[in-house]
Input
Amino acid sequence: MGNGIRLKCLREEGLDLEHLEKGQENFYSEEWEERAREVRQNTIENYSHVHDNIVLSYQVDICNKELKMITEYSSASKKEELVTITFTGVSTHRFECVCGTHHNMLNSISQVRVDYFVDQNREMLEDYLRGGAPIVSTSCEELKEYLKESGQKIFKIDAVVGLQGFVFAEEISIEVVNLKD
Output
C-alpha cells in the first residue's frame, strides 16, 4: 500500500503523525498492518461492489424499517452502473460527513462483528443509546445482546470522501443496473 493511502488511514484513525513528518514513513507500518489485520478478522462480509460509487441519494422509510441508497459508478465521465443498496429490518442508522454535492464517494460497505463494532465505538454508542436508538439503554452490553437476539447485523459504511457511518439491519441487498451501451 502506498504511503499516501497509509497516511490517510493513519490520520483517520487519529494517530500521531509527527514522526512521519520527520521522514520516518515506516514508523507506523507494523501498527497499521496490525490494525488492518484486526479489521479483516472482524469483517464478516465485504460488499466491495460499491467501491468508488457516488451516493446520489438515500431514503429512510421508518414505518417499513427500510433504508435505500442509490449510487452510481462512472469512469472517464461516463456512467457505467446504477446501484441500489437496500437495507431491510432497519433498527437505526447513523451517517456523518454527508456532503451536499457529489462528494460522497463510497469505499466499502462491510458487515462487521457485533462485539468488535460495539467495543470500537463504545463511547459514541453510549451517547446514541441515551437517545433511544435502537433501544433505550446506556449499556453497550445490553445493545450487544439486543442485536444478537433480534438478528440485527451491523453494516459499516466507509467513504473515500463524504458519507460514512453504519446501519443496524437484518439484511442488505444490492441491485446493479449496467448502463454501458
The longest helix spans residues 29-41. DSSP finds six helices and nine strands in the chain. Residues 43-178 form one domain.
